[in-house]
Amino acid sequence: MAIANTSTADGPPVLSVGVPRRRFNTGLDVRIAARANDFTTFTSGLAPSHLQANLIVLPSRYASDFRDLCARNPVPCPLLAESYVPGDFSRLKSRLHTVPSGAKIAADLDLRSDCPRYNVYVDSKFTKDGVFNIQSYWTSDHIAFLIGCSYSFESALCNAALPPRHFVMDRNVSMYRTNIPLNPAGVFTGATYVVSMRPYKKADIPKIRAITRGYLATHGECLAWGWDALERLGIADIDTPQWGDAPLTLDRRPLSEMMGDDDHVPVFWGCGVTPQEAVMNAGLEGTVMGHAPGHMLVLDCLEEAILV
């Protein structure tokens, strides 16, 4: 089984496994497969219509500051749920007004193993990439937070005949560090947004904006688009994302070869890898864990439940 490291040297690697995509009908199907290490790759397109979530797991002393970070930065950090109590990896407390029950978000849950892969940070330093579970790192003092994921509006895009290119090509979405500052909260200072990118035809962007606008719990409407957005966001090279796979044309050429082409316009959304970026800038003490970017926690809750 071929495994490719697709990151750059200054960001956590993301491992993409070169195997054909499997089909899952429910979020629980994905979680059980991940728990057994039967599925270990990225989750775009899995269990269509089910919500997917980014995961960040913190020592409890940082939980209040992190909630404030999410409240002050709802576009990149929309908070869906958290551990019911510190140390609890099987029950959730919902932060969604439309889905008040944590059990309705996900039941039969083990946050330590139900993502296909995880990253680990020690004292805010990135130390482990792509591990299959975090059981040996989890303690009774840890609290997990679930952050909305833009994979959760991809079903709607596909239903509108606008499938994301990474989905069509069986690749991980491209994710970039930007120069957009996060509003600080407690210990979380000095970090910037992470964004995901999907190329589309310029003529389709108004429709794409309209479709994704209602998914506020999963980053909502795109925040920037166009080739000129690269400079505004501080992205030096569209072909070199910090996380995920490099974007390609459908005939597998680097996207940069299409610079200025209205049929290949980069479109950017807030991204739930942002909390991991915030952790690396915060100087936190202790062990922090998160999903490996693109390797999400797939939930029982349906996407339609969070539409506004």
From TrEMBL:
UniProt-listed PANTHER family: D-GLUTAMATE CYCLASE, MITOCHONDRIAL (PTHR32022:SF10)
> Which keywords, in A-to-Z order, does the entry hold?
Lyase
Molecular function as annotated in GO: D-glutamate cyclase activity
InterPro entries reported in the protein's UniProt record: D-Glu_cyclase, Putative_hydro-lyase
UniProt family annotation = Belongs to the D-glutamate cyclase family.
Name of the protein this chain belongs to: DUF1445 domain-containing protein
Which segment of the chain is annotated as a signal peptide?
none
One Pfam family of this chain: D-Glu_cyclase
Name its GO BP terms in alphabetical order. glutamate metabolic process
